Structures are given as C-alpha cells and as structure tokens.
C-alpha cells in the first residue's frame, strides 16, 4: 500500500512538472494510436531484456526495430512519447516509463526523469540500465554524490561500461580514492573491441587525469600513445587541459615527442598551442 501511495505522489508531481510545457508535447489522435502500437511492441522487447530476477541482460533500451534510433528523428519521437504519457498516463506501463525517462533527459526534464526512473527502480531494482540513467541525470544536475551511488549500483549489477561514468563522477567530486579503486576495471575496458569514440575519449581522459594526479609519467605516456591524434582533435577541448597539465608536470624525450605530434596536427597547431616544453 505504501508503495502505491508513493507512486501516486510521484506521478502527481511529475505530471505537474510537465504542465508548463504541455502544449509543446501535445500530439494528434493518429500519433497517439501509432505510439500506443509501438509501446505495446516495446513492452514485449523490454520484457525480453530482463531475466526472471529482474537483471538486465544487455545495455539496450529495446527500441531497435520499434522506435527511431537515428539522432535526427529521435527528438520528435521523444516529444510524441512524452505527449502520449501526458494524455494517457494510466495506460503507460512501468517498463515504458523507463523509456519515457530517457526521453525526458533529452528535453532537460531532469526532475521528471528522476521520478520515472525511481518508480521503475522501486520494482526493478536489479536493472543496471535504470541505475546508470539515474546516475547520468544526477551528474547533469551537479549532484555527484547521488550520481556516484547510482553508478556504483550499475557496476555492482554487472554494467562494466559504468566504470567510466563512475570514475568521471568521482573526479568531479574530487574523490580520487574511488577512481583508484576502479583503475583495474578501467584498464580492462581498454581491451574492449568497438569501444565508441565517446567512451574511448572518456576512458583515456580519466586515466590521463589519474596519471597526472598520482605523478605517473609512465601511465600518462602509455595512455596517450593509445590515442589517435587526428581522432583526438574532435574532443580536443576536453583533453587539452589534462594534457597541458601533463606537459608541465612530466619532462623528457617521450613527452617532447607527444607534444610535437600534437603541435603538428591541424588545427591544433594554429589555434590551440600547448606549452610545457622540457627544453
């Protein structure tokens, strides 16, 4: 009974929070029919992604083949999903709320996302996807302690990629002991094939930061050498500060070689010169 009351209170708060943007999320009758059909199909997919104990079997939202997965179409479809929820609140299942929570993040509706995810976790507490989503939302809201707790649950439940987010949140909260504790897992992640560019850059940025923090020149050089300098240019703004600190802290021919690689790569050479030469 307490759980039902809690869900009712959360639901009321979530609906109220949408009120100001209701016109933007309104959808047509035909759109509502289409979304309902897709949500029915999604319910089947979502069920397949949980085992009998509620553990997620893959890092997958179950939208493939049902909802749009290309970025250009996701915003409109996310808008329609939120609009469907607003007009058919009682018809939206708990599993579907995890998907709607994901949509809310894209529109900056963070409190709604947290509410929906918590409702979901009240029943499916073994789903690492929900914990990871909750951690991301808290991190966006600059609540690193809560993000760390959520990410800790996601990795405890088997989500290995969650170690990148956990370490990132720990650095954000200056909790280097947590970063140190997951260095073995982060190192293992470097062996993962087909790591996305974002995950790879995030992983290397964390390891470079830790190397600078602990005065590990060998670790700094090793992890930098695993980067493709041309590929690195796309995320240079995120990596520049870390690498510049490394150049100021570490000296030697191997560091000079790294600096020369960067300074010879366009457009970094002309617009983002790095300093700290050992000469």
Write the layout of secondary structure elements.
Blueprint: H1 2-18, H2 22-25, H3 29-48, H4 71-87, H5 94-106, H6 110-123, H7 128-140, H8 144-156, H9 162-172, H10 176-181, H11 183-189, H12 197-213, H13 217-224, H14 229-232, H15 236-249, H16 253-263, H17 268-271
Helix pairs in contact: 1-6, 3-4, 4-5, 5-6, 6-7, 7-8, 7-9, 8-9, 9-12, 12-13, 12-15
Structure notes:
The protein has 279 residues and is mostly helical. Helices cover 69% and strands 0% of the residues. It is built from 17 helices and no strands. α5 (94-106) packs antiparallel against α6 and α6 (110-123) packs antiparallel against α7. The radius of gyration is 22 Å and the shape is elongated. The model is unreliable at 1-16 (pLDDT under 50).
Low-confidence spans: 1-16
Q: State the assembly state of the protein chains.
A: single chain
**What's the helix-strand series?**
HHHHHHHHHHHHHHHHH
Percent of residues in β-strands? under 5%
The tally of helices reads: 17
Structure summary, number of beta strands: 0
- Report the span from N to C terminus: 71 Å
What is the typical, i.e. mean, pLDDT?
84
Principal-axis shape equals elongated
């Amino acid at each position: 009974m307490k759980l039902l009351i809690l869900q009712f209170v959360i639901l009321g708060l979530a609906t109220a929070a949408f009120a100001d943007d209701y016109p933007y999320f309104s959808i047509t009758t035909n759109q509502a029919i289409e979304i309902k059909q897709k949500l029915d199909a999604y319910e089947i997919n979502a069920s397949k992604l949980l085992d009998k104990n509620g553990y997620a079997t893959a890092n997958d939202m179950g939208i493939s083949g049902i909802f749009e997965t290309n970025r250009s179409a996701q915003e409109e479809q996310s808008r329609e999903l939120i609009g469907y929820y607003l007009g058919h609140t009682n018809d939206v299942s708990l599993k579907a709320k995890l998907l709607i929570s994901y949509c809310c993040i894209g529109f900056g509706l963070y409190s709604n996302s947290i509410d929906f995810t918590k409702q979901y976790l009240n029943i499916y507490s073994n789903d690492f996807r929900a914990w990871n989503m909750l951690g991301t939302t808290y991190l966006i809201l600059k609540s690193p302690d809560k993000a760390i707790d959520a990410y800790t649950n996601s990795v405890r439940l088997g989500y290995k990629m969650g170690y990148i987010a956990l370490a990132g949140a720990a650095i954000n909260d200056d909790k280097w002991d947590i970063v140190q504790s997951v260095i073995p897992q982060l190192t293992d992640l470097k062996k993962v094939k087909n790591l996305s560019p974002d995950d790879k850059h995030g992983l290397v940025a964390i390891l470079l930061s830790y190397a600078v923090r602990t005065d590990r020149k060998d670790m700094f050089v090793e992890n930098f050498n695993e980067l493709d300098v041309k590929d690195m240019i796309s995320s240079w703004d995120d990596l520049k500060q870390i690498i510049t600190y490394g150049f100021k802290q570490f000296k030697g021919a191997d560091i000079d070689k790294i600096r020369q690689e960067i300074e010879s790569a366009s457009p970094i050479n002309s617009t983002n010169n790095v300093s700290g030469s050992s000469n």
